[in-house]
């Protein structure tokens, strides 16, 4: 995770942008711009969380690993939130791995500065607690969705989540990655992707995914996508992120 020495304000991160100016001014000197290279592990499963990362662009997946080595995505963070939420809740350990799935940038705030900021700012404390509640909804819906909905709906939902956090309609994506994210075998992902492509909703080739019909993809998804967005809007005042376009 490389540190960048240049940063252009205003903040793109939704949490930072939502803070009152005086609270943000106290945090600003401690925020350090960092780059998030594709596939970088920000912290491993059962690893120590030394800082939170307010994502400015790109996407980070939180991945649970079972004893047999199988992995599945349990949560996603983009510019609506932060990586390292356990630290904000008083725990410096995380049971899940944080891995960059779309390259981007973030603002790093170390543990001591976060603790000081939360002690000094009721607005920051309240905002992070509301984000924790919204993120818990995302995780809960991911579990329910993976257990109850068909693969095509789950794939459509995940592609919408990824599209929201991308800078355009096209982004890198492989069937192997989608298989891990959805917790299904690659043939099932390939079949679901083929059905969505045949319907004209996506275009997929050579590890690149393009969303060609956003409204159609939303219609093909289950209710979990919109339920999570409504909860982010209720708790944080916005949707979890604004779709491109």
UniProtKB/TrEMBL annotation:
<dbReference type="Pfam" id="PF13545">
    <property type="entry name" value="HTH_Crp_2"/>
</dbReference>
<dbReference type="InterPro" id="IPR000595">
    <property type="entry name" value="cNMP-bd_dom"/>
</dbReference>
<dbReference type="InterPro" id="IPR014710">
    <property type="entry name" value="RmlC-like_jellyroll"/>
</dbReference>
<dbReference type="InterPro" id="IPR050397">
    <property type="entry name" value="Env_Response_Regulators"/>
</dbReference>
<keyword id="KW-0238">DNA-binding</keyword>
<keyword id="KW-0805">Transcription regulation</keyword>
<dbReference type="Pfam" id="PF00027">
    <property type="entry name" value="cNMP_binding"/>
</dbReference>
<keyword id="KW-0804">Transcription</keyword>
<dbReference type="InterPro" id="IPR018490">
    <property type="entry name" value="cNMP-bd_dom_sf"/>
</dbReference>
<dbReference type="InterPro" id="IPR036388">
    <property type="entry name" value="WH-like_DNA-bd_sf"/>
</dbReference>
<dbReference type="GO" id="GO:0005829">
    <property type="term" value="C:cytosol"/>
</dbReference>
<protein>
    <submittedName>
        <fullName>cAMP-binding proteins - catabolite gene activator and regulatory subunit of cAMP-dependent protein kinases</fullName>
    </submittedName>
</protein>
<dbReference type="InterPro" id="IPR036390">
    <property type="entry name" value="WH_DNA-bd_sf"/>
</dbReference>
<dbReference type="InterPro" id="IPR012318">
    <property type="entry name" value="HTH_CRP"/>
</dbReference>
<feature type="domain" description="HTH crp-type">
    <location>
        <begin position="149"/>
        <end position="215"/>
    </location>
</feature>
<dbReference type="GO" id="GO:0003677">
    <property type="term" value="F:DNA binding"/>
</dbReference>
<dbReference type="GO" id="GO:0003700">
    <property type="term" value="F:DNA-binding transcription factor activity"/>
</dbReference>
